[in-house]
Every structure is written in C-alpha cells, then in structure tokens.
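[Q] Does anyone have a clean structure-token version of this?
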Amino acid sequence: MKRILKTYSIQKTSAIAAILFLLTLQSYSQPAKPLKSGYAPVNGLKMYYEVYGEGKPLVLLHGSFMTINTNYGMLIPELSKNRKVIAVEFQGHGRTADIERPFSFENFADDVAGVLKFLKIDSTDIMGYSLGGGVALQIAIRNPQLVRKLIIASAPFKFEGWSAATRAVFPMIKPEFFEHTPIKQAYDSLAPDPKHWPQFVNKLVQMVNTPYDFTEKVTSLKNPVLFIFGDSDGILPEHVAEMFRLAGGVRNGDLTALPNSQLAILPATSHTGLFAHADWLLSMIPAFLNAPVK
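[A] Here you go.
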C-alpha cells in the first residue's frame, strides 16, 4: 500500500510540475496585434478568431487550457510575415464562451470549419498542437477539400498513442492546480464568465480521458503532414513512427523520392517544452509549407 501511495504521489507531483512548466513557459510570449478579430456565429457558439498578415492562409489550433497567445504568441509575428494566419479559440477557451455541449475533437473540428466558411476560406494549411492536433486531423477527415497541408505537433492518432504514464496523469488534473498561474490569470481576464473555470477544466479532463482512435480514417488522407514531437514527449515513439508511415513516410530517400510528409523529433524536448524552441519550429514550418507537393 505504501508503494502504491508513493507512486500516486509521484505521478501527481509530476502532473503538477508539467502543468506549471507549461504555464511558466508560455507566459513569456508577447501578444501581436491582429489585423482583424471578432466572433463567428457557428454551431451555437460565438467563436473568437484573429487574423494576422497576408498571403496563403494558415490556421493555428491551440492546445488544452490554452489561448491563441499562450500557445502561438512566439510564432505568429514571424509566420504572419508571409502568411495570412488565422487563429481561433475553442469552445470554453479564451474569449469563446462555453455552451451546453460536450468537448470533443469532432465538435471542435466542425466549429473551426464553420469559422473558415464565415471568413470565406475554402482551402488552407492547418497547424495543431496537442488537443489542436487532434482537431486538425478531424478537420481533414471531415472536410478533406478544405485542407492542403497539415502540421501535427505533439498529438497522437489514438488515445493509446499516449504513454501509459501520461494517460495515468490525465485524471489527476484538477481546477485548483492552476490557481495563481498565468493560464488561470489569462482565463480570468479573457473568459466571458470567469466563474465557469471549474466546469471548464472538468469538461476538458473528461474529453482527454475519453478513448479515441482515428487511425482507420487517417489512412485515407492524402495530405502532406509535418509531424513534430519532442524526444521526451508523452507520445510513444513507436506510435510516432506508425503515424509517419501512414502519412507516406518511412522510406529510403536515397532509393526513391523523398516523401511529401516529414518528421521532426526535437532533442531534449518534452511535450510541454515544444514551443520553447520557437527558432527550431520557425526553421522548419515555412519550409514545409512552401515545398512543392511531388
């Protein structure tokens, strides 16, 4: 029993440490000024969006508990120099109020598709991190004509793609873990109803604990995909290799043409530490998006 309690205590401490690391990291990003922002009426939501720059569209989808700025504040100024960057905030996140509807990848994907229709965008590249990566995949599955290239950062195709240790942490996340943190402060300053915080966290925890498997439907996708993971991510390395294989990768580039999809594994990088390497990300994202499809 003592061993079990000790293991639980270590896991709980690790969960809190990971969350606090994420919050500290993202608090350093400074918000850029969008060219346009507003609320799109989609599926019973008033979904908040921001638009930066001009050029071919690139949609940015944030991770759990995050907002446009806390996730992408360090990338938007550079990406928007040559791209029309469109960023949104999911149901219950940031400035988008929650509604009486469960959180799900499918619901969020339909919401983003609705925003793009509202903005008259009929084809776009999409980047999603963690939760946003799963949403990006669902957009491509449900609206294949809408998506050109995908960037999937630290997101698996299925629930079991997360390591067992990571899956064990998900149920431990509690609203009180975030007290006096930048994420909670951002929520309090942006959310239409800051008192909704406990319900928001509990709905999100329920979502991330719900098993899913997109593998079968992903196999039908033809989109080039850039996968980005940390070498110490919470996602199993064998699952990462399988994702890359299903996207047309895992081949000998000396014997045949290089695949349209790409895989990047960042060294000494955890799931929450991925965006600490903004310089690395910016060295590969534009190159992938601008590369011709063979």
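[Q] Thanks! Anything notable?
[A] The chain has a mean pLDDT of 91.
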